[in-house]
Amino acid sequence: MASRRLALNLAQGLRGRAGRSAAGLTRGFATPVSAPVKTQTTTLKNGLTVATQYSPYAQTSTVGMWIDAGSRAETAETNGTAHFLEHLAFKGTANRTQQQLELEIENMGAHLNAYTSRENTVYFAKSLNEDVPQCVDILSDILQNSKLEESAIERERDVILRESEEVEKQVEEVVFDHLHATAYQQQPLGRTILGPRENIRDITRTELSNYIKQNYTADRMVLVGAGGVPHEKLVEMADKYFTKLPAKSPETGAYILSKRKPDFIGSDVRVRDDTMPTANIAIAVEGVSWNDEDYFTALVTQAIVGNYDKALGNAPHQGSKLSGFVHNNDLATSFMSFSTSYSDTGLWGIYLVTDKLTRVDDLVHFTLREWSRLSNSVTEAEVERAKAQLKASILLSLDGTTAVAEDIGRQIVTTGRRASPGEIERIIDSVTEKDVMDFANRKLWDQDIAISAVGSIEGLFDYGRIRADMSRNF
């Protein structure tokens, strides 16, 4: 904004001087004109939502389908099906063989990808603007006409089993899977995305086909475009390619259960392995949903707790009080605060990694002491720092058409509308230290916690002792 004001002042000054020397010369420096970028939405007759953010000067576009169905839409017996389907999406359709599909994408120079989360499945493509219709055609073919051949299922079964083995070697992934499993015991949100190995070995074509019929329906899908694709054009393509989608999901037992708010259970799970050089611990309270009025307050509070990495050169100066205390007392290798949201609940907490195995209890104690402090003693300065960091991270995360499409798809699937970056910035700016303390009093002070710990965790005290630290008076 400062540079814009400077440009305007320069232009006005030069116009004034030019007017005195040559009356006909009135043009000054060009100044930026910023028109608000809008997200447009249209709902087709069958219930499919089309949402776009059109940038007339963009030469590329990302188009994709965001589906309100992930591992949470599965049963215990079919857990892993959504992720399995994602693997099979590119293995041939009724209209294209796998080779034809790969060649078509390759010849366009486009990128086609997919991913599965606990609540969403996403298929998207990035290409030049002129190739968008072909990409939408391919996406519609994949989503509606996948062959699900037995030979492809068997090949992908081995691929997914190997992927499962790789995930089990990633300690952070294991800790967070265990955290969900203990916080949401015996509930759909507590299951992993890949599913247990026995399910991966047993998933059948019938189960895969049923998952598509039950979840790939227009009322749970959003076709998103970001970049150089005009809204009207994408609506036309949606009308052409997606009118045959079933309008509504059948209300199966799995669907009803997936829409029921899960119970957060204060509990812990520990996997002790003394051969590991570190203790890896995640602690969380029940957080907020995407729709919660505390959503951005939770993010600001998370940013106040902050992150820390001993390996970074700026480790002593990473901003938060906790990072300074941890560094000065050499308590941890790293920590990462998080606020993970779902459609009706969330997890707010911290992930700690330390190789100081005799000081694990100190690390946990002083972390929860910092959480307690948030209930009664938050300064304006630390709130402003957290807000600045949060705004910067949100804006930087929207760099590129794929990131914008991701933001549009996720927001519309989970909340029904997309808040613009400007609106989000204003909401964050309005958060005060009083809001943070009020949030901490309601969500942190004396609340049950879920704990997941993996590695050399002998020094981690029992659940009751840790839980008692959630209501510490200084």
From TrEMBL:
Cofactors: Zn(2+)
Location(s), subcellular: Mitochondrion
Protein name: mitochondrial processing peptidase
Enzyme class, spelled out: hydrolase
Catalysed reaction, written as an equation: Release of N-terminal transit peptides from precursor proteins imported into the mitochondrion, typically with Arg in position P2
Superkingdom of source: Eukaryota
Annotated Gene Ontology cellular component terms: mitochondrial matrix
Lineage, broadest ranks: Eukaryota, Fungi, Dikarya, Ascomycota, Pezizomycotina
